[in-house]
UniProtKB/TrEMBL annotation:
<dbReference type="InterPro" id="IPR033954">
    <property type="entry name" value="DiS-bond_Isoase_DsbC/G"/>
</dbReference>
<dbReference type="InterPro" id="IPR036249">
    <property type="entry name" value="Thioredoxin-like_sf"/>
</dbReference>
<protein>
    <recommendedName>
        <fullName>Thiol:disulfide interchange protein</fullName>
    </recommendedName>
</protein>
<dbReference type="InterPro" id="IPR051470">
    <property type="entry name" value="Thiol:disulfide_interchange"/>
</dbReference>
<dbReference type="InterPro" id="IPR012336">
    <property type="entry name" value="Thioredoxin-like_fold"/>
</dbReference>
<keyword id="KW-1015">Disulfide bond</keyword>
<feature type="signal peptide">
    <location>
        <begin position="1"/>
        <end position="21"/>
    </location>
</feature>
<comment type="function">
    <text>Required for disulfide bond formation in some periplasmic proteins. Acts by transferring its disulfide bond to other proteins and is reduced in the process.</text>
</comment>
<comment type="similarity">
    <text>Belongs to the thioredoxin family. DsbC subfamily.</text>
</comment>
<dbReference type="InterPro" id="IPR018950">
    <property type="entry name" value="DiS-bond_isomerase_DsbC/G_N"/>
</dbReference>
<dbReference type="GO" id="GO:0042597">
    <property type="term" value="C:periplasmic space"/>
</dbReference>
<dbReference type="InterPro" id="IPR009094">
    <property type="entry name" value="DiS-bond_isomerase_DsbC/G_N_sf"/>
</dbReference>
<dbReference type="Pfam" id="PF10411">
    <property type="entry name" value="DsbC_N"/>
</dbReference>
<feature type="domain" description="Disulphide bond isomerase DsbC/G N-terminal">
    <location>
        <begin position="20"/>
        <end position="87"/>
    </location>
</feature>
<dbReference type="Pfam" id="PF13098">
    <property type="entry name" value="Thioredoxin_2"/>
</dbReference>
<dbReference type="InterPro" id="IPR017937">
    <property type="entry name" value="Thioredoxin_CS"/>
</dbReference>
<feature type="domain" description="Thioredoxin-like fold">
    <location>
        <begin position="111"/>
        <end position="232"/>
    </location>
</feature>
Amino acid sequence: MIKSVYLAAFAVIGMMSFSSAAAMDEAALKAKLEDKVGLTIESVRTSPVNGLYEITTNRGLFYVSEDGGYLLQARIFNVNEGMRNETEAAMSKMRSDGVEQFANAGIEFKAEDEKYVISVFTDTTCGYCRKLHNEMDAFNDEGITVRYLAFPRAGLNSQAYNDMVSVWCAENPQQAMTEAKAGQSVATASCENSVAEQFTFAQKIGVNGTPNIVLPNGDLIRGYQPADVVARTLKNAE
């Protein structure tokens, strides 16, 4: 079965490489995809595979043939480098670079002896998010600063979104977050905030639930992990 999958993937890539005889420049390629597919193209760059461009979009990372005729959502593995996942490497860079834009917009629980900063996409109604929050002292004791970013699972037109805006806009966001995750109601508040932008960015980098943890190197942990496990993962990634 695995052999068949690889052979099929190589066949598709081979076909796409052949179709690139009439290669388009990057601007024309971007315009074609935005018109035909409806994606917002943020960047176009060469990929590790001849005949394919790597495109970063508002819906994640894709590959496209040089003539714009084929669009592919796939994983590229580098056989010559021990089956290194080139797609995941690109996604990790997207994550690590992207979370920095929210460095001053997250709600931080800072470790006194900070060794690492992790970005945790959270929802105040999520049971496992509450479990993680209950271990905040343990995370901080491990030298881990937790920076919360918003991911209202019900979407932007939901009460969860409104509640998270109120948390972000509270006079004391840390206290409001703790109260919300304890099941308490949070006073309605509004202000200039980036909750919607955080949610949209999360979708782009593959977050599909909460909690999802972005490590400093851009790796993504899906789901809850206790503080000691996250600490070991961070140490092993150094």
